[in-house]
């Protein structure tokens, strides 16, 4: 399904990639195996061409230095920029003297910075990615064809 989305072409497929956002809770000191797998899979599919289009979005920020940033760096995950976001105040009516108001302002500012930076990314063409995915599909089909012969020892 993933392969089909990027290789169908026309109005269905995707010709370019503007950005990839990985969302990680800010307090997470270590990446999970699932997160590592996702990061590795995305990089394996798109290659190093997309490194300048990867963003890390840290959630539940309270303006501290993100502990999860150390985990991202330790895993060697390349990224353009990271943003600490807090949207806890977006769904409540803030009282002008309330702490919620401060979180509202902080969240709005963080999202504004992220979207401004995102608007300045240069899209990456996925033509080469499509070719690689098609070649992988052909190799998989060829391997499926010879696998029974290998298993039978012929």
UniProtKB/TrEMBL annotation:
Q: What InterPro entries does this protein's entry cite? A: P-loop_NTPase
Q: What is this protein called?
A: Uncharacterized protein
Q: Which organism is it from?
A: Darwinula stevensoni
Q: What is the lineage of its organism?
A: Eukaryota, Metazoa, Ecdysozoa, Arthropoda, Crustacea
